[in-house]
Specification:
There is one protein chain. Strand 3 (57-60) and strand 4 (68-71) form a beta hairpin. The chain is an alpha+beta fold. Helix 4 (72-80) packs antiparallel against helix 5 (86-97). The protein is globular, with a radius of gyration of 14 Å. The chain has helices at 12-21, 25-28, 38-46, 72-80, 86-97, 100-117, and strands at residues 3-7, 30-34, 57-60, 68-71. The chain has one domain.
Amino acid sequence: MEHVIFFDGFCGVCDAGVSALLPQASRAQLRFAPLQGQTYAALLARRPELKDFDSVVFVEDFGGPGERVHLKGRAVLAILRRLQGFGWGVLRALVAIAPTRLRDGIYDLVARYRHHLAKRRDNCRVATPEERDYLLA
């Protein structure tokens, strides 16, 4: 079962998030793919309602019969549930206790200003040899 985190490949905040999550990728069965890539295009063919979504999309059991798509605060919480370690556990607890409306409001605020928080990239992330197993096109 493969779980895919789709992210804005030109976003510095998103890239930093991917970098933070990569050490957990193998254990958490995570893969990463830019919203601008072929893997997301395959998802859009099945789920055209995601066409205008431009920030993090988390898909559990990607392409499988139990495929589940999570957006906004639900995506963040679903990703955090897959991570191990004290720091991730504390963050997961804080996100989990927040009401959905507040969680999504904070998510929307960060998403709206993400290009001001970290420099916008001119191109998508290029995988290092160690990252190639986890980064999809």
